[in-house]
Amino acid sequence: MSKITQYFGDNLSGKTFAMWGLAFKPKTDDMREAPAISMIDRLTAKGAKVKAHDPEALKEAARIFGGRVNEEVFLLTKRYDTIEDADALIIMTEWNAFREPDFHLIKESLTSPVIFDGRNLYDPERLRA
Hints:
- By secondary structure, the protein is an alpha/beta fold.
- 33% of the residues lie in helices and 16% in strands.
- The chain has helices at 2-8, 35-45, 58-65, 79-83, 103-109, 124-128; strands spanning 16-20, 49-53, 73-75, 88-91, 115-117.
- The mean pLDDT is 96.
């Protein structure tokens, strides 16, 4: 969260963040104590909206976020739908499907070409290039 507020400032009102990965670990829908929950809570508390995707945990996320779904948290079945008009992408779970994304599409779709890689999936030098 500190890297996000360092980049965008403390007031995130009007910002939308794409989030890939909600489950605690890949290949499961287990969200018990998943870092994505607290990250979403912190982002929305600062006024942001979150468009999230996870290959397995969307149903569990809908249960956890309840009445906040489609208000401040949007759960999407396609990962690239999350990045459309989002200000940045946040990687929360190291799913294999997220390891080799279309970086050109990500850059073109985000309003700010920035990825907060919470799982160290991507080589920083490759992203800078």
